[in-house]
Amino acid sequence: MATQWPLLPLSMAASSVVLQVHGQIDKLAGFISIDCGLPANAVGYVDNTTKLRFTGDAGFTDAGSNHNISAQYITPTMPWGWHTVRSFPTGARNCYTLRPLVSAGPKYLVRAMFKYGNYDGLDMLPIFDLHLGVNYWKTVNISDASSPTIEEVVVVVPGGSVQVCLVNTGSGTPFISSLNLRPHKSELYPQVNETQGLVLVTRTNFGTPKNVRYPDDPYDRAWLPWRDPREWSEISTTKSVIKVDSFEVPSAVMQTAIKPLNSSSPIRFHWDAEPNANNPIPRYICMLYFAELESNAVHEFYITMNGKLLYPLVMSPRYLVTDAIYNDKPYHGLDRYDILLNATANSTLPPIINAVEVFSVLPTTGVATAAQDVSAITAIRDKYRVKNNWMGDPCVPRKFAWDRLSCSYSVSSSPTVTGLNLSSMGLSGNISSSFGDLRGLEYLDLSRNNLTGSIPDSLSQSSSLKLLDLTGNRLTGEIRSRLLKRSQDGFLTLRLVPY
């Protein structure tokens, strides 16, 4: 009888002890490790298993509220990161902004973790969406209050920052327990580029009870154990196994493998397609990892998917060297993907396998707001401490565009900011020169605030500006001659009634 196993969903519920220290980004590794929901003034901690520093999330988002999960869901061995959550009861989209080290990119693993634990006392399991910047990432479906849900993606991060957004879809309040960012070398996962990322379906380590993470895996990927002594015999070695550059599977993972107890049986596994409204025809990438662990042994087998050869040659793993079999062109169009490892007729030994990864392909082709506009409007937001829904991309997706802001959309270019209505927002201080960096700005209403100082020269240089309303402020100084002339010539409506 064939050995058959469905691929496991990602889970990292291993115990962890923590040491209290001041929280900070682990800059030596370029990692960002956030425990969501810690009080703003709380110290962070070092995870005793991975030795990684975790910090609170106050510096990464200014929305939401902090909560502890219910005491009934806390166990003595529960990792500290599952104890608290940040929830977002207001707003359709709430985001975290992560700014990795400039030298760390360009590829990153982003991991978001969730444990409901009835933190709100409502016993209502939510469903909500995750977005990565302007692109849909995954629908989070919390099906059990006590079980963790973990979503992970490998992507190229352009522009020096990435935003992870929780989107309310009307099926419960979004929340999050922890958020990680891990830089990857550009050679890792060659299928990842500027137009597509990889969403983890499973990452499995065979023949061991050990959950392999950092520091054994320098990229902090979680290789989860899978054992079945009723069906499999386990093979292991203490000798190092050579890595391959494109995937760098840790030696600690490749040092164990499985083979069928019945030497004439194949190894069989499968995964089911998971289509949804955002991804009706999901596409998949599969990586199978092999290394011979027994000296003078020769395992020879074929690898097939749904009855067709996945690898055109006989697979014969090399001794203590990682071999990776994977597809560059995504599989798609099937309801179920069955992979069979079957010994050749001449082989006296059964098939073996050390590890496997399966990903679904994430299109990252969404066009973000023009970079200069994002930089300018972010500087304006930070200067005046504007909150509202000012997080995530300013203009994209359209239904989540920032309040009091208008954008223009074009098929051939990035969206740009064309209008800002910040009237009666309690703004104080001088007028930011960043307004002038919004090159497509046509309408700017700063009326009825407490702005002081003079009109910056950058605004007078804005040739697209048609309306500038500064009514009801405490401005001083002369009107710039260029602004005055454009107003006198009828190209600009200028309102300057003082406070």
Notes on the protein architecture:
The protein has helices spanning 251-254, 371-384, 457-460, 481-488; strands at 3-6, 18-20, 32-35, 45-47, 53-56, 65-68, 84-87, 93-98, 107-114, 127-132, 135-141, 149-156, 162-171, 175-176, 178-184, 196-206, 224-226, 232-236, 256-260, 267-272, 283-290, 301-305, 308-309, 323-326, 331-332, 336-343, 355-363, 405-408, 416-421, 428-429, 443-445, 450-453, 467-469, 474-475, 493-495. With 499 residues, it is mainly beta. It folds into 3 domains: 10-184, Sandwich (Jelly Rolls); 203-363, Sandwich (Jelly Rolls), CATH 2.60.120; 371-495, Leucine-rich repeat, LRR (right-handed beta-alpha superhelix). A hairpin with a 5-residue loop joins strand 4 and strand 5. The model is unreliable at 1-5 and 8-25 (pLDDT under 50). Strands 2, 3, 4, 5, 9, 12, 15, 16, 17, 21, 24, 25 and 27 form a 13-stranded mixed sheet that branches. A 5-stranded mixed sheet has the order 1-20-26-22-23, with no helix packed on it.
